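Task: sequence design from structure.
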């Protein structure tokens, strides 16, 4: 794919998630970052973008409204509340948006589960749920593929407090609500609970998520096979994803623990929460790029 064929990406939100996304976009063979927009030229993210030669703006979404041709796809890495207004504006412009916030306006997407199905719906608002959702829901869904009668599923994610920016902290209620709704949808569980722990330990801890599933008469060998297959799919786009504790029966529940080690693109490797959701978003953006490239190729062939 030549540079002119790459999908043009705009990122709004210059915090941890947005800045890590920018670095990942720059490494992609299918994407190019044509705008990094925030509100403060003096923020760490804006300074990093400037150092890397990425076009920057302190006008946020207004920079896209002023020049819609600047991008094909927008990563919204701001907040759930801000995304409501952003989507209203970007929808009118016909933009495809990958929402990094727990706003729940778009189609819930876990690439390992429903990447192609999400694109097939034709949606232009793809919601990446939450970091805890991206790490736990695939495992819960793998268990649900074996047992359609999960009574209750609970997930507890622990992340380094240093990796949680202001928007993440402001959206904790939305985080819980969105993760729980997506958990039920993808696993089929009758009830779901999500917990997020911001761990202040120094040195910072790696992201770790434990999934608890209450099931009558669980088929442990079948569950382990299903979970192993799901982990392999996840590792194809999140290399640092791995099982710490394979599915085990404990206290009448099936218990599994996973860890995500970050690539260290922006924050150090302890920030696996950035990697799990950002790698998922990049995977979706690259699929959008591939689909558009194929469409344009066909149009040129028959044009």
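Answer:
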């Amino acid at each position: 794919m030549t540079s002119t064929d790459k999908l043009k990406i705009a990122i709004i939100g210059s915090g941890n998630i947005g800045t890590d996304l920018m670095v990942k976009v720059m490494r992609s063979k299918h994407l190019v970052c044509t705008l990094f927009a925030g509100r403060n030229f003096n923020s760490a993210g804006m300074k990093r973008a400037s150092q890397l030669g990425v076009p920057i703006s302190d006008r946020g979404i207004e920079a896209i409204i002023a020049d819609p041709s600047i991008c094909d796809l927008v990563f919204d890495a701001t907040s759930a509340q801000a995304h409501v207004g952003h989507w209203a504006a970007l929808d009118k412009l016909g933009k495809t948006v990958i929402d990094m916030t727990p706003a729940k306006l778009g189609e819930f997407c876990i690439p390992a589960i429903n990447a192609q199905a999400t694109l097939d719906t034709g949606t232009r608002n793809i919601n990446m749920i939450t970091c805890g959702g991206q790490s736990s829901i695939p495992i819960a869904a793998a268990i649900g593929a074996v047992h359609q009668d999960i009574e209750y599923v609970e997930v507890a994610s622990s992340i380094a407090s240093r990796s949680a920016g202001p928007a993440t902290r402001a959206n904790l209620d939305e985080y819980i609500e969105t993760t729980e709704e997506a958990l039920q949808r993808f696993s089929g569980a009758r009830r779901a609970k999500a917990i997020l722990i911001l761990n202040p330990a120094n040195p910072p801890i790696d992201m770790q998520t434990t999934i608890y599933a209450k099931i009558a008469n669980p088929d442990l060998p079948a569950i382990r096979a299903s979970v192993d297959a799901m982990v392999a799919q996840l590792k194809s786009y999140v290399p640092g994803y791995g099982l710490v504790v394979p599915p085990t029966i404990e206290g009448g529940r099936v218990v599994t623990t996973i860890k995500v080690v970050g690539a260290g693109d922006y924050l150090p490797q302890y920030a696996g929460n950035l990697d799990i959701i950002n790698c998922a978003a990049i995977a979706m953006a690259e699929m959008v790029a591939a689909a558009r490239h194929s469409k344009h190729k066909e149009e040129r062939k028959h044009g």
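The longest helix spans residues 272-302.
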